[in-house]
Amino acid sequence: MSDVAADSPQRSSHRSGRRRRGGGESPKKPFLAAQMEWGAVTYLDDPTQPVDPDGVQAIHDASMRILEEIGILFLNDEALDILKAAGCEVDYETKRVRMDRGFVMEAVDRAPAQFTITPRNPAHEITIGGRHVNFGQVASAPNVMDLDRGRRVGNRADYQDLLRLAQAYNCIHLNCGYPVEPIDIHASIRHLDAHYDMLTLTDKVIHAYSLGPERIEDVMEMARIAGGLTNEAFESRPHMFTNINSSSPLKHDWPMLDGAMRAARRGQAVIISPFTLAGAMAPVTIAGAVTQQNAEGLAAVALLQQVRDGAPCVYGAFTSNVDMKTGAPAFGTPEYVRAMQMSGQMARRYGLPLRASNANACNAPDAQAIWESLFSLQGSCSGHANVIYHAAGWMEGGLSASFEKFIIDCEMLQQIAYTNRPVPISADDLAVEAIGEVGPFGHFFGADHTQERYRDAFYAPLMSDWRNFEAWEEAGAVWTHDRANAAWKQILAEYEAPPIDPAIDEALCDFVARRKEEGGAPTDF
């Protein structure tokens, strides 16, 4: 057994990590955050289209010129061989690939416009594409913060707690990755412990990182075991997904291409998200940045369709701008809003689902963090993103995950979901009789029409405090982030792990133990 395996948590600690926090002694309290029921969220309004049809065609034509004339670097020999066999122009010395637009479009046309991902609990299946939108929590932050303990390096305990919050909230549909990096677990086995936690503390859709063969293969096997599936059943449809980023400008690197091809080969979904910051890794104009994003993303879609015909792919968009004085990424800006809307136009042109993000660059869950996130969500939703990454808890340009911001974001997500419900119009809804009953001198608080309905309506009491100043002050003048702080603590105290078949849990533990014995994944690439 390797040293890292010997020092890693044993099976008993895996299981104890799933126990109900707070024990059974404390009385059950009302859930502080109003909850909508689990269910699909679909856009009610049409998408915003800031670019006219001629502009969309111009971005497409410019992207095709990039692919045909300039080319994309594929830093993976297997990918080069696949593209060479498919008829692309491949320079093995420079790793540059040029693709004919006819080849690209024929390949993109084979990717599905809509598909489902079924996790170990089929009741939490999600649909990617069409007018569906799915929210995923913060992912890949190296640090974590809350009001009590401040900002600190990511660790397994906080990682597990963020997973518990994601499971508790019905507005969170999928896990986009590690909500915070559990850096106290050695990198060679981190994916084993982290995904054991993800598969047992939640029963929602999971993500696997494309960081070399071992990690993606291990996690696919763990997802198969957790679902109680044969290899054939697992590979027949998506049960998990991965996300890859191009190394902008105009490069796809080895480990992400390797992971994406492995996932596609087994029928699992791949999100392709060029990280194109205008003025840094892409042209300073939004049109130029979206054009580059488009070329980089479509090139990878074309590759994956050669690996498996009909491989489920998502058009990822992460184009924003930077502060040109410091080079720091900026989010929630007008440029980001327009980039997401334009990305939606391009994704729909190709019949591909869209991924966007709820991003902000703030260092604390303050008013600026909220308006930056709100503008990011506006751009993502008005662009009809089907998957919104980092929808709850993302802070500091992705460097931190915040417990309080998670709660505040979930309230915004629930407002978005509620706003996208159709408005019923019936004679009873028009309330003519109730208006006549109350008349010009009464009020509707005590009307039968009101009393019969308000208890069934959804409100958002946690982050919306509609008392006047004096009543609020008398109640203790609790600020929004303080209320969020109380909420996440209570949610964790009341958390109960989703059930899992003991035999499946045993099989997962055995797999984790065996792979640790074998050394896990290399860390030297």
General description of the model:
The protein is α/β, with parallel strands linked by helices and 525 residues long. 43% of the residues lie in helices and 14% in strands. The protein has an 8-stranded mixed sheet with strand order 1-7-19-18-15-13-11-10. Strands 3-4-2-12 form a 4-stranded mixed sheet. α3 packs across α11 (286-307), α8 (213-226) packs antiparallel against α20 and α10 packs across α11. The longest helix is centred in the middle third of the chain and has 22 residues, at 286-307. 47% of the residues are buried. Mean pLDDT is 91; it is low at 1-31 and 459-463.
Radius of gyration: 24 Å
Mean pLDDT: 91
Strand order within the widest beta sheet:
1-7-19-18-15-13-11-10
Main sheet overview: 8 strands, mixed
N-C termini distance: 22 Å
Strand content: 5-15%
What is the overall shape? Answer: globular
Counted beta strands: 21
What's the layout of helices and strands?
Layout: H1 3-7, H2 11-16, E1 41-42, H3 53-70, E2 72-74, H4 77-85, E3 89-91, E4 96-98, H5 101-110, E5 114-117, E6 126-129, E7 132-137, E8 143-146, E9 150-153, H6 156-168, H7 190-201, E10 207-209, H8 213-226, H9 231-235, E11 241-244, E12 251-252, H10 254-265, E13 269-272, E14 277-278, H11 286-307, E15 313-316, E16 320-322, E17 329-330, H12 334-350, E18 354-357, H13 367-382, E19 387-392, E20 394-395, E21 400-402, H14 403-419, H15 427-430, H16 432-438, H17 448-451, H18 469-474, H19 480-494, H20 502-517
Parallel strand pairs: 2-12, 7-19, 8-21, 10-11, 11-13, 13-15, 14-16, 15-18, 18-19
Antiparallel strand pairs: 1-7, 2-4, 3-4, 5-6, 8-9, 16-17, 20-21
